[in-house]
Amino acid sequence: MPMSSKKLTPFLTILDVGHGNAAVLHDEGGTVVFDTGKGASVGIHLSNMGIRQVRALFLSHADVDHIGGAVTLLLNRSVMIDEVLLNSDATKESDTFKQLRYALAEANARDGTRIERRLANSTKIKRKGTKIEVLHPPDAIVLTGVGGILPSGKRLTSNSMSAAIRVLRNSKSSILLGGDIEYDCVDEWKRAKVRPLASALVFPHHGGLPGTSDESEAKLFGYEITKLVCPDVIVFSNHRTRFGNPRDCILKAITKAVTGVRFVCTQLPQQFHLDVKAKGCWSLHKSGEDIVDGSICLVFQRSGLKLSFGEKP
């Protein structure tokens, strides 16, 4: 991955893409994109920032709300992408995933974009600046692949293969991008004694139910992952009305797991507006007398993360 000598205060922007995920890292090592949501949001952000080269594009898994804007970005002739990292998923037959394969081939032919078809916890990302670590999935699961059967008898799904990626400046300034990981990831972390600690957690499934309709299971997942990550701030990249996210059962599990944790949404549902005014765990949405939401900028500082709304500091 090429390096940049340009020095700047590193920050990661979680773009407001509604029900979906898209985040962009800007630091002295260049620009890195994590998932693309839907539409042209990432491309517009890069244009606004004057960025014409992306060092790497990480696609956590093949669900449309995580790869929906990738085709638009790959075909954008004003942006060159050096490398794309993703895991293959033979079960995906969506038009979006088919178009992604064609767009990857075109970007490779046009710009020499490298395609790395393995995104596992052994993946080493050598770059200047902020450290990027893949904490899930392990290599054994990647080799098995979506649709495969584990020794436990469990069939792997796209969410089983979802990458969890930590962006780390120092022990006080780090972000865990949770993708759509589920309870099997939590189990694996506990078994392997992985410590996925992070200052901020972009919560999986947009604060919705993690591959289950059972709220008691969802609460256990919410409690366990929060306990492991131990974040100061939890971010929900969500649509303010779609699916009712973040779910109340998830919020209760999180606050039970970690004292003093604060919540923030890219789109704040109306039912939480009173909680913002009460200056509780939703107080990050309060700006003077106003309630704010939208894209979220997390600035890496030595003393911790600084959060603000907007696409840049």
List descriptors.
313 residues, alpha/beta, 8-stranded mixed sheet, 6-stranded mixed sheet, 18 strands, globular
Folded structure, characterized:
By secondary structure, the chain is α/β, with parallel strands linked by helices. The chain has one domain (11-309): Ribonuclease Z/Hydroxyacylglutathione hydrolase-like (Metallo-beta-lactamase, Chain A, 4-Layer Sandwich), CATH 3.60.15.10. Helices cover 26% and strands 24% of the residues. It is built from 9 helices and 18 strands. The strands form 4 sheets. Strands 8-7-5-3-2-1-17-18 form an 8-stranded mixed beta sheet. The protein is globular, with a radius of gyration of 18 Å.
Query: SS-based structural class?
Result: alpha/beta
Continuous helix count: 9
CATH architecture group name: 4-Layer Sandwich
* Topology order in helix (H) and strand (E) letters: EEEHEEHHEEHEEHEEHEHEHEHEEEE
What is the CATH topology assignment?
Metallo-beta-lactamase, Chain A
Tell how many strands the DSSP assignment holds: 18
**Ranges with pLDDT <50 over ≥5 residues?**
1-5
Helix content: 25-40%
Q: How big is the Rg?
A: 18 Å
CATH superfamily: Ribonuclease Z/Hydroxyacylglutathione hydrolase-like
Q: State the CATH class.
A: Alpha Beta
The fraction of residues in strands falls at 15-25%
Q: How would you describe the shape?
A: globular
The structural domain count equals 1
Mean pLDDT: 93
Distance between the termini: 25 Å
Strand order of the largest sheet: 8-7-5-3-2-1-17-18
Give a short account of the largest sheet. Answer: 8 strands, mixed
